[in-house]
Write a structure and sequence with these properties.
alpha+beta; 6-stranded mixed sheet; 5 helices; 26 strands
Length: 568
Amino acid sequence: MSRLRLSRLAAGAALPCLLASVPGLAASLDATSRIASVTVYPDAASVTRTADVDLPAGATSLVFRGLPIGLDPASLRVEGAAQAGLLIGSVEARGAPSSTKPADSGLETRLKQLRFEREGWQTTHDALEAKKSMILRFGESKPEKLSPDSAPLDIGRWSAAWDAVGQGLAKVGDDLRAARGSIRDLDEQIRALENARQRPNPRGGAARDIVVELEAQAATKGKITLTYRVAGASWRPLYDMRLDTGGPASKPSLELVRRAAVTQRTGEDWSGIELNLSTVRAARGTRAPDLQPLQMQFPEPPVAYARPSPRTMSAAPPPATADLRKAEALQAETQRQANEMKPAQEQEAVLEGGAFQATFRVPGQVEAPGDGTARTFRIGSRKITPELSVQATPVLDETAFLSAKFALDEDAPLLAGAVSIQRDGVFVGEGRIGFVAPGDSTEVGFGADDKVKITRVPVRRKENEPTWLGTTKLETREFRTSVRNLHDFPVKITIFDRVPISENSAIVIDMLPVTTPPSDKVVADKRGVMAWRADLGPGETKDIRLAYRMKWPADRDVDFVENPVRRP
């Protein structure tokens, strides 16, 4: 072999190595990945994908195709391990075209043939219907119309005419039945093929491709892990509270069952994954809002500006408040939760508490449908010894309600959510619970207590009309609330009531000495709302008196308006 030929062979053998060493000409490899685990937050999710790869020596562009369009590129993180030395380079998120597959050409051809055949049978059917109409009109004609010379048809030929009409109708009827049957069969075949026709995949729309640049010292096998945050997923808390009220010789017991309803519309298939639920609100922000100084000043008169001419007029940017409202509306829409809860297998998650967050690890390999349907999981339960009491607001409702107070001694907080209430094995209703931090106490209502009778009656209402000597109007009101314990054991009671409050110095409201001193003069920072607490033995009755006097100028009218406390 000549030296020239040997040189060409050597150059050809070295060319692939030279191309592989050039970053822009790195080999491209599609990653066959699967979702290993998902951590769902109340407002987002973090997905971890793994891919087993067989890498050649040199540079390789590993491509994860068809990932959700809602993926946050800033959250991309890549880790890897290999038998040989492996270097991870850049990570890039690219827009991917629609992956909708073209329609099946064979199926479309068959549909065209069936539709063409149906049109032919429809034409035959219409012709037979016209022929049938003509025979019926012939049969309804008078005898003189049947003769060629318009003379009455000879009676001897009537039988032949009847036979001709009958045979014609019978033949046309048979042909019509055949045509209708063929049309019906063709319609069924066309409908079946149309249902089987490949439709656009809802997941085949816009997507993202993630390209990871790798550099291997030698041909090796490895494992690449890709983690990213994606919108369109959330979980909301649900609770079961089952109260055993006990009795004279036993203490009450409360079972608190935590559940989580997980929904996702990410466009991914969450099947056979490891599911974690975190209390971290990933989309809420990372720091407190920046508070700007507040200046108090006198308003300045508006300055009149000349109206700009049409040539110099330009579109002004929208005010910041409008942008903020649009952003808030968009965020509220993305966090919207819909659809009903889907039953799930009763299994309990493992709580991993931390100083600033809590994570529930759902055991086993689970799945969450991608159509937004809620999938519920039992993530925890706890036995608590609550403090029972009876509460009532007789100014609005004289019904007594049983309440259970307890302290949360877990590492995970109770997020605000719906509560299913059971008392002594009986479902009594649904309620809601607010956010409860670890170590805090909360109270939950457990329905009406019919063995505590409460009545609130007015004792006195006196109005002093002003005379020519006085310009002030006085009104005195007094009420008595009676509470009776019909249980055979003592109960703790709390009665809530209120007196009017005034922000105007011209309206004066005074408590009268006959009022029973309240245990709490202000309840939950609400002025005018008070509480009376007492322990009632079996059959014991307690009366609570509330009396106050209101004074205001006689020439002014007054209104009573509820003013609830607004909380941020």
